[in-house]
Amino acid sequence: MRNTCFLILCGLWFSISAQAQKATDKTSGNPIFNGWYADPEVAVLNDSYWIFPTYSAKYEEQVFLDAFSSDDLVHWEKHEHVLDTAIVPWVHKAMWAPSIIEKEGKYYLFFAGNDIQNESGPYYDASQGVKNKQGGIGIAVADHPGGPYRDYLGKPLIQDFHHGAQPIDQYVFKALDGQYYIVYGGWGHCNIGRLSDDFKRLVPFDDGQLVKEITPEGYVEGPTFFIKNNTYYFMWSEGNWGDSSYRVAYAMADSPFGPFERAGTILEQDPEIATGAGHHSILHVPNTNDWYIVYHRRPIPNQGRDHRVVCVDRLFFNEDQSIRPVRMTFEGVQANPINQ
């Protein structure tokens, strides 16, 4: 009898535990994984969801990139140090804002390194001389989204300051005509460049310019693009990344070169939930009408400059294809298996 009761109690415990687990797994929750991270890049790669964020810490501690993968947007697996300064020796700090893209079976991970400065920059130190400009935007490559990665060029792809844009916050995408472009830029300027087929260089435009400036009103940093119904959506972050003014705005155009007229703010602080929401990317689940925004925000109460976490919420459109303001949540999103 005692054994029977024990087995019944065990059965009840497992049943209750399973129900509790099922209840907690209904949504992703926000943040979607543990740790301080920012600038998340989301993509569907190798039949899984992947997120590549910046490790949010002091610049001198930002010497690696982690990645996270999921089959359903709810359960995330951490892949530690998919890239670090041991692999990319020309970077010694401030490894930022990864951007991932697949091309011909290879996975190219673009990143910024060293927070390089020029004479007009806020942290330019004349005593450092050329060291101020040693860094920029680089590329790593692998046969699998989780690596192992290797330094693709052995040097930055973009190191110079063009049109006043600091070479950070890169995003790479394929245009409707099949051409791959890189958009990037901090310090209130955004540039677009045309990538060679092998991603080893920028291809000058017909007028001889290596990159063109496409800065819209209010732009500060964190550019990203997506295409819907043959329309280019250009999105960026405004305000100050270190405080509650951080937010996301967007524009729409028929060309990746614009002109881009600011259409409005679609993500900003909610004092009841979080502040400093920005530097995001967009996920479209293949073969569905499901769209998501993956972004970082500052929890309340905030524990410091680098206390930023990665979150996901739904993205919706109006009948005219403009974007509705995003409602930040603690719940996150429901499970959405990639192979549905």
Automatic annotation (TrEMBL):
Leader sequence segment? 1-20
Indicate the family of this protein.
Belongs to the glycosyl hydrolase 43 family.
Q: Looking at the keywords, is Transport present?
A: no
Q: Which GO terms describe its molecular function?
A: hydrolase activity, hydrolyzing O-glycosyl compounds
Q: What is this protein called?
A: Glycosyl hydrolase family 43
Q: Which InterPro entries match?
A: Glyco_hydro_43 (IPR006710), Glyco_hydro_beta-prop_sf (IPR023296), Glycosyl_Hydrlase_43_Enz (IPR052176)
Q: Would you kindly state one Gene Ontology biological process term found in this protein's UniProt entry?
A: xylan catabolic process
* Record keywords: Carbohydrate metabolism, Glycosidase, Hydrolase, Polysaccharide degradation, Signal, Xylan degradation
Mind telling me which CDD domains this protein's record contains? Answer: GH43_XlnD-like (cd18827)
Active site (catalytic residues): 39, 221
Give site residues, Important for catalytic activity, responsible for pKa modulation of the active site Glu and correct orientation of both the proton donor and substrate: 169
